[in-house]
Write a structure and sequence with these properties.
One of its GO terms (cellular component) is outer membrane-bounded periplasmic space. It is built from 21 helices and 24 strands. It has about 725 residues and is of the alpha+beta class. The protein has three domains: about 180 residues, Biosynthetic peptidoglycan transglycosylase-like (Penicillin binding protein transpeptidase fold), CATH 1.10.3810.10; about 300 residues, 3-Layer(aba) Sandwich (Beta-lactamase); about 90 residues, Immunoglobulin-like (Sandwich). A hairpin with a 2-residue loop joins β18 and β19. The chain is elongated.
Length: about 725
Amino acid sequence: MLKKRIIFSAVFIIGIFIAGFSVYLGTILFGNYAIDNKDLVMNASTTIESSDGELISKLYVENRELISLDDVPEHVRNAFIAVEDHRFYEHQGIDFRAIGRALYRDIITGSKAEGGSTITQQLAKNIFLSHDKTWLRKTKEVLMAVNLERRYSKDDILEMYLNNIYFGHGAYGIQTASLFYFDKPVNELTIEEGALLAALPKAPNYYSPINHPDRAKERRDVVLSVMERRGYLTAEEMVRLQGRTVAVQAKPLAENDAYLSYIDLVLDEAERLYHLSQEELLKGGYRIVVEMDPQIQQVVYDAFQEEANFPAVSGEEPAEAGFVLMDHQTGGVVAAQGGRTYVRRGFNRVTAARQPGSVFKPLAVYAPALDTGSYQPYSLLKDELIDYDGYVPGNYTHHYQGEMTMYDAVKESANAPAVWLLNEIGIKAAKTSLEKLHIQLMDDGLALGLGGLREGVSPLQMAAAYGAFANGGIYYQPHFIHKIYDRNGEVLDQSKLTHEQAFSSQTAWYMTKMLEAVVSDGTGRWGEFTGSLAGKTGTTSMEEVNGGVRDAWFAGYTPEWSGAVWMGCDRCDENNYLLEGSNIPAQLFKQILTDAYVDHASREMVFQPPAGVLDLADPIRFVAIDDLAAEVKVGWRGVDVQLQWSGSDDERLLYHVYEYGEDGITKIAEVQGEHGYTVKNVSIFSLNDYMVVPYNPQIDREGEPSNVAKAHFRFFSQSDQVS
């Protein structure tokens, strides 16, 4: 029996010597065998967060947040070193004592149970090798561990190890684990919390403090015991800490459905502007700060869940919608919703092109016309049914006034004046103007003035274009990403975003005043919002169905934000279309603004004219005069005819006074601010008739004439004369 033990011991010692010599020889011969530095770059999760630091989402293959060893408290490091590799700072990557014990166990048990691996070996195994248990893999592990020790310091290796290991429930790395289990960063961990994390890598699922708290506590207490045995804790500290319960505050990352469409738009922009693929974002550890206001995004999402906010449809497919709200002074999109039931990487209606209808008129017709300098808000436009080489645009009311001001044409969304004006300024001028708003069109027909386009435009394009009206004519390219930081904290190039002067500041101000009128008492009057708002409605009809609606729009802006909402069917046909028009998106837009402004003091802001522009007075309106009276007054000074009529409260309206005489009708006076006029020294033997016609100086036009009044006598009494 003793002889067998001697033989076994000799074999065991020779085995250790051979193993050590093999490692040494392998290191000399193979040098940097199988180590590729790029493999040491660990996958790190990318965070998407708001400008105030609120986490919106994490993107990852492995949910890992890298951390510096300097941020790991010493008692947390000690817990891992004590239980995993207590001679970590003494060996050179291989602990021959531990290997000897492991070989002994393997020989005794006749299996490859594995053991004695140092922290360096575990790092090598996790990064470079598979997890099969073979002697060849073990040899590779040893070679790599030695080479890691030659290349990196102990602290570097420990940092890589703590960032690499898996802690269960999808958490990779100690920082992610700390946030997940305790809702706190590593630097705030207590001793027993650090010991619990150190207990998990051995079997993360088996010792999960969430699923198996009793096992977790038992394993944690083992770690605390080992820490006491290695001199990191006193016996008293160990006993006290082992008496504490396992208290976790698990905080799994719950994906907020309200953010899904916005996140997808962020991913698309990261690839388009920063050339970062989704795969790179899942692994690269970027920090993406976005322009989203989470509270407003939630408001929009909640509004999209209310069935009452959407129009009725003819078929079974419900109405869909897309919404954008952006800061028009920067182009940053504060909220975007791509659909009512949006799913990740689904069809995003924020960027889907749709037929804009009349919401396109201010961009394609009225602003370009104002920019020419030949037209003003009160310029008169033809309002007639005109045939343009087979294209005959008609007003939706089927009524025509002959002429109307641009102001009224915008407010009432009349079609005939818009097309007539586009024909006057030319399609080239319109398209040149649209190009400054980053709207490229293939269309060359007059129908584009009414939003009849081949491909259409998206809510995102409309929100940005209307933002130029609010911003003194300056167009800012809409964007979702504020800044991107790489894993080293460096900011990626941001020179890709542009802005330019799309309209003159005078044009922008005139459009703002006219679009305010649209909202106050024009086609955009539906719904309630107490703040300053300018905007325009748009509706496209189903040609196949009388009264059917394909697309319904509202685009508008406040002094702070600009936005657009589209409603319609994803697949419109004669069996599936909207039964209501643009009044519904106008109401939804105002509801969202009302709810969004609850926590914003800027609600009381009003539109301010840019420096150096002419303001736009309210329109002067004609009044009907049907009570003109002409009284002859005889006094000691002679005979006068006193004219009286009821007129407008607007003192800017003028009145032309006409007299019917032997030579016909003669204009004898122009009156402003008065509803009466005295014709002096008339002949008592030839009294005439009179008429008053209102005159609007804004448009240089007379209105409808009053009734004709025949002068009749009235004799003053003595008391009348004295008074």
